[in-house]
Specification:
Length: about 425
């Protein structure tokens, strides 16, 4: 079914799949905000809890834009916070904790991604919330989980830390080179977010059947290991890191204009590449009888052969020819090229957020979950810090204007 056909089936009158699901999130940076952003795109109502003055630490990243009050809004925040409402609560203040616990029973899901143990110390951990709201689905995302048996439980972590610990950096390290950190953006964050979403959806289904909530504990290292499964799998089969390249060819090549990537990991793929690039002699060369041989002679024979064939072509032309014959390949795009790509436009994979300063719109990847009977959007821009504090506290807890002013003046909210 084509995306156009999917759009024809969509009924704008139908609710989104997660309509009515409510999420209270004490979150920052990327792992949990990416998860709640995805859930919001599927219809959930997300209320984001931030510190009254500092906000989500992702707001302090660079590059940044400024909000209407001249406060910095960093790129990490801009990528991961479409659609939630923001309330500002000081969770180190007893009144702020009490407001959080008062809010919790109004929500189906409560979640946090502090360093392990922090939520409990603040007084907003699972036990404290479940005491007020026994049916709660509670998600924690941290570097190494909240199991005291882990030797790493109290370590801080960002994506690159758990990526390196997963083994993928050594696995992909080129001979004579240092391992490259953070080669694909926020793999450690987004993998954790996706498994968090799966946990939430499964726990909601479980609650539908049993009436009981539960605690979900996502460790970023666990999630990243699941995404880099080849590392441990190959090790168990006797293939050390330095020999992992023997599986085949996964490399980039230079064309006359631009670069392209090929994944040649089956013999029939190698045969096709040899024929298409005008190198049929490779098929009878004993050096290429095994995949290990492809890699051993890659730089001296295969790369020069493929690149000689591609020298009078653009990367797109080379990929078009190879793909037509069943070879897996793609252009190595620049940032501009992927932004302007026809596939990206057809699949609605970029969302624009107009800037208050009149600059070019901020671009954020759209929702990759395409559904036949559910319309996408509309999306709302990222919230300014504390933009919805009064609105949420008045609606959910019935606080008066006078009480809201008192809380603001005491620094508990903003």
């Amino acid at each position: 079914m084509r995306l156009g056909d999917i759009a024809n089936e969509q009924d704008p009158g139908q609710p989104q799949p997660l309509a009515g699901v409510r999420i209270l999130a004490a979150e920052q940076m990327a792992a949990l905000p990416f998860a709640t952003q995805l859930l919001a795109r599927l219809g959930a109502d997300v209320v984001k809890v931030e510190h009254p003055t500092m906000g989500d630490s992702g707001r302090g990243s660079v590059p940044f834009i400024e909000d209407p009050q001249g406060r910095k809004v960093g790129a990490t925040f801009l990528r991961n916070n479409f659609n939630p409402r923001s309330i500002a609560l000081d969770l180190k203040a007893p009144e702020g904790v009490e407001l959080f616990l008062d809010l919790a029973p109004k929500f189906d899901i409560v979640c946090e991604n502090f360093k392990a143990g922090t939520a409990d110390r603040l007084g907003i951990g699972y036990d404290a919330v479940a005491a007020r709201h026994p049916e709660v689905v509670y998600l924690s995302v941290s570097g190494f989980g909240n199991d005291p048996a882990s030797p790493y439980m109290h370590r801080a972590a960002y994506a690159a830390v758990v990526e390196g610990m997963s083994g993928i950096y050594e696995y992909k390290r080129a001979p004579g080179r240092r391992p490259m950190a953070n080669p694909v953006g926020a793999l450690g964050d987004i993998s954790s977010a996706l498994f968090g979403v799966i946990g939430i959806l499964a726990a909601l289904r479980h609650r539908d059947m049993t009436g009981t909530g539960q605690y979900i504990d996502i460790a970023m290292l666990d999630a990243t290991m699941a995404m880099t499964d080849i590392v441990t799998n190959f090790y168990s089969m006797g293939i050390p890191d330095e020999a992992s390249s023997g599986i085949g060819i996964v490399e980039t090549f230079e064309a006359g204009e631009g670069n392209f990537v090929l994944q040649i990991v089956r013999e029939h793929h190698f045969e096709k590449v040899a024929e298409i690039t005008g190198n049929p002699q490779w098929l009878t060369d004993p050096r290429f009888e095994s995949r290990a041989g492809w890699q051993e002679h890659f730089e001296t024979v295969i790369r020069p052969g493929v690149e000689a064939w591609a020298a009078d072509k653009t990367n797109k032309e080379a990929v078009t020819i190879l793909s037509a014959e069943g070879v897996a390949g793609g252009e190595s795009n620049s940032s501009r090229e992927i932004v302007e790509d026809d596939h990206v436009a057809v699949r609605n994979m970029l969302v624009e957020m107009p800037r208050e300063d009149g600059g070019e719109p901020i671009l954020v990847p759209g929702n990759p979950v395409k559904m036949s009977r559910t319309q996408e959007g509309p999306e709302t821009r990222v919230p300014w810090l504390g933009e919805h504090t009064d609105e949420v506290l008045a609606a959910e807890l019935g606080l008066s204007a006078e009480r809201l002013t008192e809380l603001r003046e005491a620094g508990v909210t903003s």
